[in-house]
Specification:
The complex is a heterodimer of chains A (214) and B (325). The longest helix of chain A has 14 residues, at 148-161. Chain A has 214 residues and is of the alpha/beta class. The termini of chain A are far apart. In chain A, helix 4 (103-113) packs parallel to helix 6. Chain A has an eight-stranded mixed sheet with strand order 2-1-3-4-6-5-7-8. Chain A has eight helices and eight strands. Chain B has helices at residues 30-41, 74-87, 151-154, 170-179, 198-205, 300-320, and strands at 21-26, 46-50, 62-63, 72-73, 92-94, 98-104, 107-112, 117-125, 129-131, 147-148, 162-166, 185-189, 210-213, 216-223, 227-234, 239-244, 247-250, 254-256, 286-288. In chain B, 51% of the residues are buried. In chain B, helix 1 (30-41) runs parallel beside helix 2 (74-87), helix 1 packs parallel to helix 6 (300-320) and helix 4 packs parallel to helix 5. Chain B has six helices and 19 strands. In chain B, a hairpin with an 8-residue loop joins strand 3 (62-63) and strand 4 (72-73). The chains are: A alpha/beta (214), B alpha/beta (325). The interface between A and B is large, with 52 and 43 residues.
Chain lengths: 214, 325
């Protein structure tokens, strides 16, 4: 297939990624056909990884590499997880392709995972650290939604700060069944532990107000 | 196919190194970004706190009335604004809401949703607006179950569906155009006559799948699990009608985001902040610009212009009237 990113976009991504501090690894799970957007997601990750030498991509098969998929709780393809320099999984997952506007939450996840301080206030960090029960945050998005990357970024940052928290971006069109299961017809839609719903992009405090009650 | 739209990350690290700002901008739309630009150029220590850089530009697909750009997508225009501002190294806290402004005469203390407390000599409220609701039964029940306020975000969910659009201004007309590639059928229901610009109405004339009911007041959104239709009153024939529909796009204007300062500054009955002709609110040193003010024409270029005026006025105020340190 032809390249997804044009020279102009590559230049912009390259510039954004200069903020990266340590290496980051992406582990992508695809499967044999039919797999809508698998090919494109692989292409995107490969092209982005060529723009910064701190980025590594590993491609796995959802069926053949079951152990790895289980390790990261991956059940859909395409999905990828973003690992830190020591290859630890910190709950940062993308289900579907982060293209369109969503490229921004993808780049932000790479930079944040590389160790760059994302500037949360100490009091907020303390509150996040106190979460001691498993929390799964699903953020449903569309690629044409400019409000969505902020919501995904928040979910991923919470995940990075506490190992009990997992943040998943879900591209709603490709994963239509999942969207229907959670009655998604507006984005961003945030679903915490498959039951509590927040509609629209929310400040980190809104997440924490709910997490405090768990 | 995927139309990558890369935004520059914002720089929040310098926030903690400045003890008191000269000019703190609240809001990341055209008014806020332009104000920060002008303030910085005057040599003021300026910073921005925004719950979303780009503001309402993010909800706009095509902009064709901003001087210098015959046609540009809203998010691309906001990226261009942002890029310009970041070149001047203005610190920005993005994805952060301002909770309160406290006037500690002559300064202001601003508290944020990420737990900060920021001191500043002057401040600008440029928070814009949020989509206005119809306030009819079923609207909240079916929010995101058919009812939407962001056409560009949610249009893909209406593939081959019938969508009703509420409103008759430019936003409603643009909403229709955003839905055209996806929806099977689009019906505008508007309580009075079109207010949209003629150039947009000319475009709508070419949309075959569009039906328009003017002088028609929406009464309710119906459904069970999801919305299944709407009812409306045909004001000309004085009849109640119902329409089967999968979606309702509400584009009837905005409500100013001024709740957090309603006890601090004077507002009108719509909650819009009253400003003087140099953008100052009823509190000296506190300014407002853009859609959050009483200024009736909610336009990108007017908001940007007001932002500039506010910054220049704040600079004057700091030089001649400010009594603090």
């Amino acid at each position: 297939m032809s390249e997804l990113l044009n020279e102009d976009v590559k230049k912009q991504i390259n510039e954004v990624l200069t903020a990266m501090e340590n290496p980051v690894k992406m582990v992508l799970f695809t499967k044999s056909m039919p797999c809508p957007t698998c090919k494109e997601t692989k292409e995107l990750l490969t092209e982005v990884s060529k723009l910064n030498d701190k980025l590594i991509v590993e491609v796995k098969d959802l069926e053949n590499d079951k152990e790895d998929a289980e390790k990261y709780g991956v059940t859909y393809a395409p999905s990828f997880v973003v690992l830190d320099a020591e290859e630890n999984y910190k709950g940062v997952k993308f289900i579907g392709i982060p293209a369109g506007h969503e490229i921004n939450s993808f780049l932000s996840a790479l930079i944040d995972m590389s160790g760059k301080d994302f500037g949360f206030d100490a009091a907020i960090k303390e509150r996040v650290a106190k979460v001691d029960k498993p929390v799964n945050i699903k953020v449903f998005i569309t690629l044409s939604c400019p409000h969505c990357p902020g919501a995904v970024q928040n979910a991923h940052r919470l995940a990075m700060l506490n190992e009990n928290i997992e943040g998943e971006m879900i591209e709603a069109q490709t994963f239509n069944e999942l969207s229907q299961k959670f009655n998604v017809s507006g984005v961003p839609k945030i679903v915490i532990n498959d039951e509590h719903e927040l509609v629209g992009n929310q400040p980190i405090e809104e997440y924490l107000d709910y997490l405090d009650k768990l | 196919m995927f139309d990558f739209n890369v935004e520059k990350p914002s720089e929040s690290t310098r926030f903690d190194t400045v003890e008191k700002w000269d000019f703190l901008v609240i809001g990341g739309g055209p008014a806020g970004l332009n104000a920060a630009l002008y303030a910085k150029r005057k040599g003021l220590e300026a910073a921005i706190v925004a719950d979303e850089v780009g503001g309402q530009l993010h909800n706009t697909t095509d902009v064709d009335n901003y001087l210098g750009f015959s046609l540009i997508e809203g998010p691309k225009l906001s990226d261009a604004f942002f890029e310009h501002v970041t070149k001047l190294e203005i610190p920005i806290l993005n994805n952060v809401k301002v909770k309160t402004i406290v006037h500690r005469n002559p300064d202001f203390i601003i508290t944020t949703s990420d737990g900060r407390s920021i001191a500043t000599r002057t401040a600008l409220i440029a928070t814009g607006g949020t989509p206005k609701k119809l306030g009819i039964p079923g609207e909240d029940t079916f929010a995101n179950k058919g009812v939407t306020y962001c056409a560009t975000c949610d249009a893909p969910f209406f593939k081959d569906k019938h969508v009703v659009v509420a409103g008759g201004g430019n936003s409603a007309a643009e909403g229709v155009l955003d839905l055209v590639p996806w929806a099977k059928k689009i019906t505008v229901v508007h309580r009075s006559q079109w207010r949209a610009d003629q150039v947009l109405l000319d475009k709508l004339d070419k949309v075959d799948k569009l039906t328009v009911h003017l002088e028609s007041q929406l009464l309710s959104v119906e459904g069970e699990e999801r919305m299944t239709g709407v009812t409306y009153r045909d004001k000309v024939n004085d009849t109640i009608e119902s329409l089967e529909a999968d979606g309702l796009l509400v584009e009837i204007g905005n409500v100013p985001k001024s709740d957090f300062v309603k006890d601090l500054v004077d507002t009108n009955d719509r909650g819009e902040i009253i400003v003087s002709n140099n953008q100052m609110t009823s509190v000296p040193g506190l300014y407002a610009a853009g859609d959050v003010t009483t200024q009736p024409d909610k336009q990108i270029i007017i908001s940007a212009g007001e932002g500039a005026k506010a910054a220049l006025s704040a600079n004057q105020y700091l030089n001649h009237e400010y009594k603090g340190e």
